[in-house]
Write a structure and sequence with these properties.
The chain is mainly α and 93 residues long. Helix content is 40%, strand content 0%. It has a domain of 55 residues. Helix 2 crosses helix 3. The protein is flat, with a radius of gyration of 22 Å.
Length: 93
Amino acid sequence: MNFKEMIDNMSPEVYVRLKQAVELGKWPNGVKLTPEQTELCLQAVITYDYSNKEEKDRVGYIDTTGHKSIGKKDPAKEQDTIKWIGDGPEGQV
């Protein structure tokens, strides 16, 4: 069985566990994922998403349509800039 066939036969429950393992960096039993395991799990999650989910629901999706209020200024939503002043180097001007 190759990688793609394995992903095609993967249950949604296994997908959720792999995704959670990548998010937390450990297996459900608490054992830390190795870098190789993290890479393989992430590859499996991305491949599963590509085959089973709409583009907007996939891991890593970035909505490029923009925010509805782009280009509009709303004074109530604008934030003030905060200047930190202190004794440390980050507070020196």
